[in-house]
Amino acid sequence: MNRSLAPSKAQCLRRCGAANIARTRLHTIAAAAAPVAGERRAKANIDWDSLGFGLKDVAATMYVAEWTPEKGWDSGKLVPYGPLNMMPSAQVLNYGQAIFEGMKAQESAKGRVVLFRPDQNAARFKAGAARMSMPAVPEDQFVEAVRSTVESNLDYVPPIGKGSLYLRPLLMGTGPILGLGPAPGYTFAIFAAAVGAYFKGGQLTPIDLIVEERFHRAAPGGMGGTKAAGNYSPVLVTQLEAKKNGFSDVVYLDAKTDTYLEEVSSCNIFVVKGKTIKTPPLSGTILPGVTRRSIIELARSRGYDMQETAVSVHEAMEADEIFTTGTAVVVSSVGSLTYRGAKKAYTAPGQAGPVALEMYSALTDIQTEKADDKFGWVYPVK
C-alpha cells in the first residue's frame, strides 16, 4: 500500500485484537473531545430552525481507520473533518470498490443523545464488504467508531424535534492499483452533519412519485441488495428528469417483467389497503433497509397484516395509501403516484396519510425515547 495511505507501524494493530483495543482508545479520545451536557451546542453556531439535508452544518470531527494486508484494521482515530489522502490510482476512483451506510443520532426526551439500531447497520456493512470483496470492519469496532464520532460532535446534535446528526460511514478501496482487482489497502471513515428533513417540503409533506419504465435500478443477481456507492448515481438521470417535471422522485419496477414495484431511488416502499400493508420482498434487488425492517416489526405489533410480497403497479394504483421509508426520509407519505399518464392521489393536498402518520409517530417516539422501547432498538451515546 502507498505509504501516504497507511498509518505508521507503531499505530497498526494485529487484526485479532484490534476491536478491543479500539474501544479503549476511542473511549479515551472521545472523553477528551466531548463537551459536558450543559455546554452542548454552544460552539456549533447553527440555526436549528432552518436545517436542510446537506453539508452546510458538517460536524468538525470525523473518524478514520486504515487496513493493510499485513496488519489488518488499525484502531482508528478521530481527526478534523477534511480531505482523505489517496492516489489517482486508488481502486475506488477507478473501479468503484466502496460501500456506505446512513445513520442518525438524535437528542431524546430523556435529555441524552441516542443512536437507532447501530448493530443492524454494522451487520449490513459487513455483508456489503463481503459482496464487494473488501475486508469487513468488525461489528463492535463499527459501532464504537460511530458512537465516538457522535460523542465528539455533540455540539452538532440538534435539539429534540429540530433534526438529527446524520452519520455517513464509508468503506473504500483507497490503495492504488492499475489492473482490476481488490485494493491493496482500505479506509473506513465516518463523517457527520446536522440535518433536517430530506425532502424540501418538510418531513410530513406528501411526495409525488412517478413510475419509471425506461431504466431499472437493479436486476436479479446484481447489486441491488448491497449499499454500494455505485448503485446511486445511475438513478440521477431519471430522478433529475422527474424533478424537472414536478415529481419528488421515481419508483422503479422489476427488471424481469416491468410489473412489480421495487424501490424509490433511495428508499423502500409500502402499499396499504385496509388493514393490510405490503412491501416488496428482499430478493437480492432491494436494499434491506433498517427503517424498512423496523416498520415491518412495528406494523405487526400494532395489529396490521404486514406482508413481504410482490406488489404490482396496478395494485399500487388501487391502494388506499403508499409511503416510503429510509434513514434519511424516516417515513414519508406518498401524495400521488403517476403511471403512464394516469395519476392516483392518496392524500389531501399537504396532508400525510393516516397509516404513514401512525408509523412515523410510533417510530420517532421510540427513536427519541418519548415512548417505551420494547424492542431494544435505542442505543445511548451520551
TrEMBL record:
The keyword Transferase applies. InterPro entries: Aminotrans_IV, Aminotrans_IV_CS, Aminotransferase-like, B_amino_transII, BCAT-like_C, BCAT-like_N, BCAT_family. One of its GO terms (molecular function) is branched-chain-amino-acid transaminase activity. Its cofactor is pyridoxal 5'-phosphate. Coiled coil: none annotated. GO terms for biological process: amino acid biosynthetic process; branched-chain amino acid biosynthetic process. It is an enzyme of class 2 (transferase). It catalyses: L-isoleucine + 2-oxoglutarate = (S)-3-methyl-2-oxopentanoate + L-glutamate; L-valine + 2-oxoglutarate = 3-methyl-2-oxobutanoate + L-glutamate; L-leucine + 2-oxoglutarate = 4-methyl-2-oxopentanoate + L-glutamate. The modification N6-(pyridoxal phosphate)lysine is found at residue 227. Its EC number is 2.6.1.42. Belongs to the class-IV pyridoxal-phosphate-dependent aminotransferase family. This is Branched-chain-amino-acid aminotransferase. It comes from Chlamydomonas schloesseri.
